[in-house]
Amino acid sequence: MYVSKEFKFDAAHNLVEYHGKCESLHGHTYRLRVSLKGSPGADGMILDFGILKRIVKEEVLTKLDHGYLNDVVPQSSTENLSLWIWERLEPKLQGENYRLDEIVLWETETSFVTLRADG
Predict the structure, then answer these.
(1) How confident is the prediction for the chain on average, in pLDDT?
(2) What is the phi/psi pair of residue 64, to 5°?
(3) Which residues are CB-contacts of 21 (< 8 A; sequence separation ≥ 6)?
C-alpha cells in the first residue's frame, strides 16, 4: 500500500556547465510528490499526513522555497535536486511499518524526474 502527499515550492536557479537557455537565472514552481510504502499500523495509518507534511517542510521546503537552488545544490538540475531531496528524506521516513518508496519532482507541468527506492 502507498501513501503520497504533494507539495509546491518556488525557487530560482541556473545551470552551470550547460549551454542553453537554462544557463541564465530563471525560476520554476516545482511540484513534489513524496510516496511511502507500508502497512497500516494499530492506528490504521501508514503515517499521519500531518507528520509527513512536517518532515518534508523541515527537511526540504524550508531550505528551498523562495530560494536560490545553486546555494544548496551547485549544479541544480532536477535530477540532482531529486537526489538531494531523497538524501534528506530517506533517513527521516523509515518506520517499523513504512519506508520512503518514491519521489517525483516536476520542474514544469510536463517535465519531471522520478526517483524510486528500487533504483
Answers:
(1) 97
(2) -115, -35
(3) none
Q: For 48-68, what is each residue's pLDDT tens digit?
A: 999 999 999 999 999 999 999
The span from the CA of 109 to the CA of 106, in Å, is 7
| Domains identified in the chain and CATH numbers | 2-116 (3.30.479.10)
Mark whether 6 is an active-site residue: no
Rounded to the nearest angstrom, the gap between the alpha carbon of residue 87 and the centroid of all alpha carbons in its chain is: 10
Beta bridge partners of residue 26, listed in sequence order: 13
* Catalytic residue of the set 6, 23, 26, 66: 66
Is the per-residue pLDDT at 17 higher than 90?
Answer: no
Catalytic residue among 22, 59, 79, 90: 22
Catalytic (active site) residue 26? no
